[in-house]
């Protein structure tokens, strides 16, 4: 009778199989988009003759990396945790590499969680809560960018029913995220307790409560929140500008700033954890969104972004191969927060 494989080996095989399946789905979607003519690989050859714009796009993506790095460093400070900017930049490059090859943006978040919490026994839950909150700030800023551009194109939004519904959905999501943050930060009302009770039925309620404690630290540090949001808006605006540059390269005669309205929504769809790096899913979303604004080449625009992202991913790969030591340190003389104390008690 053959022996069953060890549990760890079986789990690893399942993860590998799922990863292969997601890659297959992503490349299958790309093949379908190419065969149907939605993606025109011939137009991508223009990138080689437009190398100054390609350099500008890569430079904007580097600015994006720096701003995201500042965001995480600033969000850690109120917790008495120090992440030097240089280390934070390396961590962001590394997470970008994992984002490219793991489903959606989940791979990058997991990489940040692992390396930021490394050698930080007793404060791992606290650091994990900040990293996830950092990602939430990034998502909120994408939603906010979409809404910021709505007054610039009021006639377009009002005349296209689907676009109007999308904008309404984005507004509801942004208000919902803002309301959830308000519930956590409110101290004198019973809102904070109400949120805890609402999460009481979850199997991981203790972890959720400790995450709430970590976020509640910003109650007296609104400047850190505002600075992080400002950095995030600038970072995501750079990425949206990269999409506009791609459209200018691919279709200079039909270029329009209307792309700025829907590009943030497209990037949100691309971050869904369905295929590695949103491969195929993001292209389909960009194509549909660009069509709503009367533009074409949406799928090719995101494909350009992927090509321009390769140097950023390679820098992340270099940091990964070199090895990544401890990056987050406690500030001397600073005590741990409630969530950190809970970790130590365990």
Roughly what percent helix? over 70%
Uncertain ranges: 1-5, 335-346
Could you tell me the radius of gyration in angstroms?
A: 21 Å
Straight-line distance between termini: 43 Å
| Strand order in the sheet with the most strands | 1-2
DSSP strand content: under 5%
Coarse shape = globular
Number of helices: 15
Series of secondary-structure elements, N-terminal to C-terminal: HHHEHHHHHHHHHHHEH
Domains (count): 1
Mean pLDDT: 77
Secondary structure: number of strands: 2
- What structural category arises from helix and sheet content? mainly alpha
Main sheet overview: 2 strands, antiparallel
Structural commentary:
The chain has 346 residues and is mostly helical. It has one domain. It has 15 helices and two strands. Helix 4 crosses helix 14, helix 6 (124-148) packs across helix 11 and helix 11 (222-250) crosses helix 14. It is globular.
In short:
It contains 15 helices and 2 strands.
Question: Topology, please?
Answer:
Blueprint: H1 7-35, H2 46-49, H3 51-76, E1 81-82, H4 85-101, H5 106-117, H6 124-148, H7 154-159, H8 161-185, H9 191-198, H10 205-216, H11 222-250, H12 259-270, H13 281-292, H14 298-322, E2 329-330, H15 338-345
Antiparallel strand pairs: 1-2
